[in-house]
Structure formats: structure tokens, C-alpha cells
Amino acid sequence: MMRLRSIAAAAGSIAITGAFAFAPVSGQSSSTAATTPSPQPAASPSAEPKTLPAEAFTLGDLTAADVIPTATAPAGTWSPPAGYAGSLRPENWVQIAGTESCLNVRIAPGLTWHYPENDEAIPTLNCLPDGFVGQLSFGPNTPKDAQGMPVQVDGYWWWYLLGQGWVAEDWLTLLQEDGSPFAPRPELADAGLIAFMRADGVWLMNADGTSPRLIYPVDMNAATVGSVRWSPDGERLAVGVNTWAGAQSRVVTRIIDINGAVIAEYPGLSEATWSPDGGRLAALRASEIGELGGYQTTPVVFDIATERETAVGATDSYFRAPEWNPNGSSVALLCRSWSWQETLPDGTTLDRAFDCGGDGLRTVSLADGSVRVIAPIDTSSGAYYDSPSWSPGGSTISMFMSGGECQGYALIDVASGALTTCLEVPQDSFGGRCGGGGETGASDWTPDGRTLAYHWQSGAGQNGVALVDVATGERRMILTTGSSSISFSSDGAHLSYESAGYVWTADSDASDVSRVTDGWLPAWQPLP
Fold first, then answer.
1. C or N terminus of the chain, fewer CB within 10 Å?
2. Minimal CA–CA distance to 230: which of 199, 273, 189?
3. Sorting pLDDT into bands at 50, 70 and 90, what band is 291?
4. Cα separation, 64 vs 140, whole angstroms
5. Ramachandran angles phi, psi of 377, nearest 5°
6. Cα 223 to Cα 229: distance, rounded to the nearest angstrom
């Protein structure tokens, strides 16, 4: 991995330790460890100077597809737009230089959106420091021949930087035309396999990116894969497959070995996660695809040896399977009461409601079925909880929270139910789930329980994978946007994640970030 020089921005030091940067946020107490960075330095481009507010950004009416392209077209199909006299080309690797601080990355090309009444600054996603390396891609809604790239707006030529956003060419220098600037990492070859998805099925590769191989073909014209998860012994994968034929749809979890052989098939189970001993699955019970995505599913625990299934919650609106206690004795899940109106065949309506019998974060004992609500939620107040994640030691559950005691990621003491730490994110970035999936508000722990990783899309300068020391509140960022599916190596030293249609790896201090291959849903194999 190439080493790039460190710079000092006006707001503090940003250390460049690899092709991508991390930004530590320190000096905060663990009980109120806010993730808001120091005031953003004056960023390029600017107008005498063109400084823009570091306002929080939410997608609003836009979708990820509107602002985050995930693929590039062959460079041979591209020809420069009229008036462009620069030397850069799509798929070039570029380096940011000469900003004196950092380069604003925006959700659209240009400095402002021009309206009849007034102009509004285009929100920024991140501010990338000098030395940052990225690849030029194509913009959203651009024809396949990419005749429209780059785009000239507000006096600058704008390119889309893959997995980042729109940047002005004035602060880009050519690093190399094609290939990859990332040096091989042979030390990862023995760190376990990474399973991931491509358009033709489930793949495996060594963690250094070598020896990729298709192990389980999937016809994406007739199926989708929603989850790929390793068994604790690293010998099997639980693959959630949703299939359809005409008006019929089917939900199934298949257990495959590392050669792709199907060992078992469990119809109706979705989002399956393994128990710590590998003998059970926590999952959502659904009869068809239409019941998934927060509609009518039942959280269950399925015993693989006996094929006995136990419901651990009522049929309701769930997005994630129950979370395992690390000792396997219980599971945690969220339950919310809600009401809806059903239209009958004669056109009349009927009011219906579901009552949890105690809204909030609950644990369910698998020995006797007893339920304990450890973090109640008052849904009438507008409070919103999501995506619990049990710490490896079992004493803490992290949970995304909005509108309650914490505006961000709350660490809940399991024994007392007390909120011990709040890792804040900007309130303006909140918007509820609204069509999200199991990754909405997700967080993941390193195996030693010292670091919590999350990837919420927040305000400017806070997009990407956040790696937070839960004891000190120090946060290091892998700057990107649209990241998901974080998975740590067994020793906790490395992680993989998905961004912009690619699988990436990094070290757990946010250094040595490398783009490994195209694909999604990466999962790092646990080693004995």
C-alpha cells in the first residue's frame, strides 16, 4: 500500500495512512462521545473564497441510485464533451492535491442549485484531504457511452469519484490511467476467506483478493440473495434466497459448504443468523417475498438437529432476525406496536392494530421463553429504535436511536437497561427507516468488543464507515458513502465492507483501505 504524506487542516490534523483517509475525532468523553467533527476547514472549490456550509445531508426525495453510481463503462466508449480540453478520462485513478485543506465532495455537480427565488448550496458528503486517491466514474443517469462526462457547472469541470460523489477537476491530478493503485497484501492471504455476491451467484476469495471462485450459481433473473452468513466454524454458509416464478414467490434459506454443495434447505426462513455454537438459526419466518421488508414476519429460533422451531415474538413488522446473546442463552429483538387500515372487498375499511405488550428492545430467554423489555420506547413521542447488536462480551447491546435519550448509537447495559454511552450523529440525518432494510442503523463489533463500527449516512464529513473506540469515544472514518455489510476478520485487525458495487478491505484503525473486487454482501470467514 502506498503511503501518502500527512497534512494539517485548519480544523486539526487529518492523517493519511493509505490510499484513503481516516479522520480521528478525539477529546470526547465516552458518555457523550459526539461524532460531530471540529469546524470544517475552508474547502475547495470556493468563490473568493467560495465557502459552503457544512450542513447535514439527507437523501430526501433522492434515492441512492440518483447520487451513487455503482459501475463504470469501458473507457473505449467515451469521448470528451464539447469544450473539455483536460487530459483526464473515465476510469483514471486520480489524487487530490493543492487544496491547502480538503476538497468538498457534493451530491450533484456544481456549487449551488439555482432556483427562481434563490440559490441554495449543493450539500457536501465529505471533504477529502490532499493525497486522497480515488477513481473517476460516471455520473447518475448518464448514458452508457458517457458522452456527458465530465460536466461543466459554475465554472468548473466536475467528475464523479467512485463511491464518493462529485468533485471539481481543478484539484485532481492523474495518478495512473487504469489498473489498481493498491499494492498486494499477501499478509491477508491466510486471514480467512471472504464470501460475497456477484450477479451470477455466491463467490469466495482469499481476503487478499486472490483465487476468486464461483461456488453457488444463482439465476438473478428468477431470484435474489438477501443474506450470506458464515457458520461459527467457518465451514458453512447460510444463504437467504428469494425466488419467484410468475405470480409465485418463495423464501428459503440454504446451507451450503465451501464447495457450494447444498447441505440443507429451510423454506420460509429469511435473514438467518447462526447461534454461537452453530446448532441453531435465528430467522424471520415468511411464506412469500411480499411479507419481507418490515411486513408480516415472525421471529423464530430453528434447531438444526431436531428441526424444531420456536417463535420468540409475535407476527409483526421486523427487518432483522433476532440477535444472539454471545453465550446462546437468549436473543434480542425490537418490537413496535402499530395500527393500520385494511380495505375490504366491498370498499369499506377496517381499523386494525398490533400490540407488542411492551414496545422497545427486549430479550427473550430460550430456556423458558421469558421476556424482558430492557429499553422501553414511547412510539407516540416519535422516538425510533433500530438494529440492536450484541457486544461480544454479552454485557452491552448497541442500538440506533432517534428521538429518545440519544440521537445516534446508544450502548445499553443489558443487566440494568441503562444507556451508558451515546455515540451521536447529526439529527438532520435522521429520517426513520422508510423503505430501508436490515442494514438501516446497523452496527458491528470487533471480536474484542473494543470498537463499534457503523455506516449511517450523516452530515458533511461524516459519511462512510465509522470505527469508534467505545471506551474513549475516538472515531476514525473510512471516507466513502453508501457503505454497508461490515464484517471483521477473526482477529479483529481487518474488516471488509461494500461500497459503490465493490468489496473493500481495510485495517481496523481505518488505514490501508483497498478496493478488492466488484460485488456486494461481503462476509469474512471466522477462523478457529
1. C
2. 273
3. low
4. 10
5. -135, 135
6. 18
Report whether 371 contacts 360 (CB < 8 A).
no
Helix and strand numbers (H, E) in the chain are: 1, 43
User: Which residue in 179, 138, 180, 136 sits closest to 161, CA to CA?
Assistant: 136
* pLDDT at residue number 254: 96
Judge whether 450 and 471 are in contact, CB under 8 Å: yes
Quote the CA–CA distance of 213 and 98 in Å, as a whole number. 42
Spatial contact of 147 and 81, defined as CB atoms under 8 Å apart: yes
- Number of Cβ within 10 Å of residue 453's Cβ equals 25
C-alpha 55/C-alpha 124 separation (Å) is: 8
Q: Are 158 and 169 in contact (CB under 8 A)?
A: yes
Helix H or strand E segment including 65 = helix 64-67
Q: Which comes out higher in pLDDT, residue 479 or 439?
A: 479
Please identify which residue in the block is written with the cell numbers 457536501: 124
3-state secondary structure of 187: helix
CA atoms within 13 A on the CB side of 96: 30
What is the spatial distance between Cα 425 and Cα 327, in angstroms, rounded to a whole number?
A: 31
Instruction: For residue 19, name the pLDDT band (cuts at 50, 70, 90).
Output: very low
Which stretch of DSSP H or E encloses residue 301? strand 296-303
How confident is the model over 444-471, as pLDDT tens digits?
999 999 999 998 665 566 788 999 999 9
Nearest to 506 by CA among 438, 457, 453: 453
- How far is residue 243 from each of residues 248, 288, 428, measured CA to CA in Å? 8, 9, 37
Q: DSSP of 87-140, one letter per residue?
A: ---TT-EEEE-S-SSEEEEESSSSSEEE-SS-EEEPPEEEEEETT-EEEEE--T
100-123 exposure pattern, b = at least 16 Cβ within 10 A, e = fewer:
ebbbbbbbbbbbbeeeeeeeebbb
Which residue, 95, 225, 356, is CA-closest to 215?
Answer: 225
DSSP-based three-state secondary structure for 62 = coil
Residue 472: the pLDDT is 93
Residues 470, 445: contact at Cβ < 8 Å?
no
Question: What cell numbers appear for 6 in the block?
Answer: 500527512
Residue 452 host element (H or E): strand 451-454
Return the closest-CA partner of residue 95 out of 134, 128, 56: 134
As given in the structure block, the three cell numbers for residue 516 are 478488492
The upper half-sphere exposure of residue 397, i.e. CA atoms within 13 Å in the direction of its Cβ, equals 30
DSSP 492-511: SSEEEEEETTEEEEEETTS-
* All cell numbers assigned to 53: 456550509
For 75, phi then psi, to 5°, come to -60, -25
Q: Check if the beta carbon of residue 494 is closer than 8 Å to that of residue 510.
A: no
- The 10 Å Cβ neighbour count of residue 221 is 7
